[in-house]
Each structure stands twice: as structure tokens, then as C-alpha cells.
Recover the amino acids of this structure.
RNA sequence: GUGGCUGUAGCUCAGUUGGCAGAGCACCGGGUUGUGGUCCCGGUUGUCGUGGGUUCAAUUCCCAUCAGUCACCCCA
């Protein structure tokens, strides 16, 4: 059989990287629960028509079918792997509305799949950590202000570079575009979104070509997109452009509240940035994007927004707001940069040496005593020379080697070389050594 | 999904104008009859991404394919 090869866009980590990922997931989950979000997991597949309901056919959805299924693999009843966690969640809410308490706060940490061409930080199978709040009929705007707080706390608890959450409100863009007489706000948004990459001159050209903007309209769009402020002062800058529209006013008020709330909680975390406006097309209000400082060129590691029309049945609506951490992208980028480290490759804290195979039982007894007190322990694979057994531990980063002895046991910290007499029923490693230490390399 | 660039040991890379493939680090053994990391000596590492074609001969040329990466698209 020939050597197996990777599948494009389906990353697999090493055990050390997986330990970092689990550490990160634990922290994220901890923060989500600290804010009272309840756990939820939905199935991996949704009916295809549900998945394609909102977007154009451009959504690269993977279809699921049996090997020997009949023809028509993409019929109305076909199943597709979900490409985000919000659409399945909206479906879940509709399906279980009778059992849920509203407003409903939930988090969901699961794989999602998108059939796009992969590159660094972009995958076809990746992990998202998502929070959403939905309510029945109406959703108070203060929830839009809560999202950055949760995310700010969650990301701050991770061994990653500092982040900046950029916030905008689609009502501002749509209201403004309407106010100046633009007819295709979607196209205008797409053009404006490229501002960082291609510069104002070419964005103006794009606006003219794809959104039918006049020179004055293009200029106004650019002026709006260039507004950015860490506080509500962005509102003055918008008003100074002299456009008026009811939707625009609504958006300004909502965005002001979001930015002010964030500033009170953690100054510098959030910035009103009127050029960011894209993301999934079901957003109707606040939208969020998050960059790691120093890694801006890799795009957003955490995005979301408010959606008013995703879940409705009959005359009941469930507006919501949510945001999602791109865990795989976050980690993929930092792994690629060699920016994350773990103190060891295995959970093991203590390696119990084996004096000779006849006495392996004694080593097993030591290991059991340590494990019973919560100390991750493994027994040496062979009764090789102690030098080799120590090296076995060293290669994996296991900090302690335990030597059983007729005259009493001893435990050695192989990092310092310090060795002390010890009893398996009593000895405890320093708290910091109990679990692998995850950190930002060089920090 | 479209187009560009790349693909040699576990890692970082050299190399062959087509003639049985190299370095450093890593790894293994010994120096050290049981306590590693430094040092010294020795050793192994590979279908030269995969498949096909041209040729007496291909890792080197050609085609396809897969993977990585970049741009578009889209977005975590």
C-alpha cells in the first residue's frame, strides 16, 4: 500500500498541538459558561435546502449521501454538512421552541465544513466556538453590546497575542447608501471591504463598476469607510458627512451603545470601524470582526453579528445575535508562526522507573498511589539503564522520574537534577507541574 | 471552483547542464556495569510527493495527479 497523504484543507495536529487546542477549548468553554451560556451540540448535517436558504448557490456545501444511493444526490431532501453553527442553531430553536426558555443563551463548539480552496488559516474542516442569544419576537440591543465582552474575556484568557474587535452596524451602511441614492448596497459593501487590500482609488473604481456609483457617491462611501474610532465619536464623523436616513440613525445609536459598553468593560478592546461590514449575508445589525495584533493579514479569527430573519415560523420570529471564534484558524496561524509552546508532549507528570522486570509490580504500585491522588503517571516501558529511562522522560518533557528502592523511594526533577527521598502516598509535585504548561512562545 | 509558485532524510535545506543522492540538526549505539542533558567516537536515516511518458539510463526533461502556499471567490 502506498503511503497515505494529507487531504487538502483537513488539518490534523500533533499530540502536543492537540493538547494546546484542548487547553484553549477548556478556557473558552469556561468563559462562555461564566457568562451563563448553556452547552448545545447539533447534528452535523442539515437538509440542503435549509443550508442554502439564505445564501446564493455560491455556498460551498458538502453533500452527504450513501455510496449506493439512488441518483439525484442534490435533491430537496439531500443532506449537507453544516458550514457554520448559526444556521443549525436557528433550526434547532424553531424545532425546540416549546422546550426552551427565552431569551436563550447557548454556546456550541463544533466542526464546520466549507468546500473552499484552502490556504494558511483557511480550511475545509475547522472548529468554531460559537455563542448566540436569541429571543422571541424582539431582541434587546444590549445583547449586541454583550458579545464583545464575552469574546474579549475568552480571548484574553488564552496564550495568544492581544486582539482588537472591530465593530460596525449594517444599518449604518445600508442607511447611508440609501441616503446617498445607491441601489446595490451588497455590491458597495463588497467593494468597500477591499479598502485595506487595494486602496481607495481602486475601491472607487470598483464602486463605479459593480455598484453603479457616481464619483460623488463613491467618494461618500469611502469617506464613511474611513471612519474609525475607539468610542462614540465616530457618530460625529458620520453626521459630518451630511447624509440623513432613519436606518442610519438607528445604526448609529446601536453602534454607539456597543462601543461605549465595551470601552467601559475593557478600554481599547473594541473599535468602531465602518469599513468592516461583510461576513455572512444574514446579518442585519451589529457585525463583528476580530484581528490578532501582529497577524492582521490573516483575517478575522472571530466574527459574528445580529440576525433578525434567520429563524421564523408563521408569525413567530426569533431574532438573535452571535459570534464565533475560529479556533482552527487561530491555532493554525499561531502553530505556523511557532508562537505556541507546551511544556511537554504528553500529560504524564511522573515516570516511574523500573529497576528490573521482576520488580515491575513495585513500580506499578507507586504509579497507582500517585494516580489515586490525581498525579498523571506512567511506568517506564522497559527496565533499561536508568540513563535511558530518564532520557525517555526527557524526550517527552516529563518533569519527574521516580526511582523505587529497597531502602525507600526517590524522585528526581530532571530539569534541575535535584533528587529527594519521597513516599508515593505523600509526595506531590508543585501545582504548576501537574499539567502541561501552555504558553505564548518567548513570553 | 479558476489561475500562479513550490514539493529532495523526522526538521532546515544543498545537489545532479540526465549516469547507482548530500550537509547541519534530530535519531540510534559506544565511551559511562544501572541516574539523562555537555563532550568524543561510530552508525542509520530517503520508493528525490505519486502515477505515466521520452531515453541505453530520469530525482533531473514532458504530461497528469496529489499536497502546500499565494491571488481571485468566499470567509472562521
Amino acid at each position: 500500500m502506498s503511503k497515505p497523504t494529507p487531504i487538502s484543507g483537513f488539518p490534523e495536529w500533533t499530540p502536543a498541538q492537540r493538547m494546546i487546542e484542548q487547553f484553549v477549548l477548556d478556557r473558552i468553554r469556561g468563559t462562555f459558561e461564566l457568562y451563563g451560556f448553556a452547552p448545545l451540540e447539533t447534528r452535523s448535517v442539515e437538509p440542503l435546502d435549509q443550508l442554502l436558504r439564505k445564501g446564493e448557490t455560491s455556498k460551498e456545501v458538502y453533500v452527504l449521501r450513501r455510496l449506493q444511493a439512488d441518483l439525484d444526490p442534490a435533491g430537496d431532501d439531500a443532506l449537507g454538512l453544516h458550514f457554520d453553527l448559526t444556521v443549525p442553531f436557528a433550526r434547532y430553536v424553531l424545532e425546540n421552541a416549546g422546550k426552551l426558555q427565552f431569551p436563550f443563551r447557548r454556546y456550541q463548539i463544533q466542526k464546520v465544513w466549507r468546500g473552499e480552496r484552502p490556504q494558511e488559516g483557511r480550511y475545509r474542516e475547522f472548529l468554531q466556538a460559537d455563542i448566540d442569544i436569541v429571543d422571541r419576537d424582539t431582541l434587546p440591543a444590549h445583547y449586541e453590546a454583550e458579545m464583545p465582552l464575552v469574546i474579549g474575556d475568552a480571548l484574553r484568557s488564552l496564550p495568544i497575542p492581544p486582539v482588537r474587535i472591530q465593530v460596525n452596524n449594517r444599518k449604518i451602511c445600508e442607511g447611508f447608501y440609501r441616503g446617498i441614492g445607491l441601489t446595490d448596497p451588497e455590491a458597495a459593501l463588497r467593494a468597500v471591504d477591499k479598502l485595506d487590500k487595494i486602496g481607495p482609488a481602486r475601491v472607487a473604481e470598483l464602486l463605479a463598476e459593480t455598484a453603479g456609483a457616481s464619483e460623488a457617491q463613491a467618494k461618500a462611501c469611502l469617506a464613511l469607510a474611513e471612519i474609525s474610532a475607539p468610542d462614540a465619536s465616530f457618530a460625529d464623523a458620520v453626521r459630518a458627512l451630511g447624509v440623513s436616513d432613519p436606518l442610519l440613525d438607528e445604526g448609529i445609536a446601536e453602534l454607539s451603545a456597543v462601543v461605549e459598553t465595551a470601552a467601559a468593560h475593557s478600554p481599547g478592546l473594541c473599535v468602531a470601524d465602518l469599513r468592516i461590514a461583510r461576513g455572512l449575508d444574514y446579518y442585519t445589525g451589529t457585525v463583528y470582526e476580530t484581528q490578532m495584533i501582529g497577524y492582521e493579514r490573516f483575517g478575522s479569527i472571530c466574527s459574528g453579528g445580529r440576525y433578525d430573519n434567520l429563524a421564523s415560523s408563521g408569525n413567530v420570529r426569533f431574532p438573535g445575535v452571535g459570534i464565533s471564534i475560529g479556533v482552527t484558524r487561530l491555532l493554525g496561524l499561531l502553530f505556523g508562526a511557532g508562537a505556541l509552546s507546551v511544556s511537554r508532549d504528553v500529560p504524564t507528570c511522573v515516570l516511574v522507573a523500573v529497576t528490573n522486570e521482576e520488580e515491575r509490580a513495585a513500580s506499578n504500585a507507586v504509579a497507582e498511589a500517585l494516580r489515586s491522588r490525581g498525579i498523571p503517571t506512567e511506568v517506564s516501558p522497559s527496565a533499561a539503564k536508568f540513563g535511558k529511562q530518564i532520557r525517555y522522560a526527557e524526550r517527552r518533557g516529563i518533569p519527574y522520574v521516580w526511582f523505587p528502592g529497597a531502602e525507600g523511594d526517590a524522585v528526581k526533577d530532571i530539569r534541575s537534577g535535584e533528587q529527594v527521598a519521597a513516599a508515593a502516598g505523600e509526595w506531590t509535585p508543585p501545582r504548576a507541574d501537574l499539567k502541561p504548561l501552555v504558553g505564548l512562545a518567548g513570553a
Observations:
- Chain A has a mean pLDDT of 91.
- The two ends of chain A are 45 Å apart (CA to CA).
- Residues 400 and 417 of chain A are 10 Å apart (CA to CA).
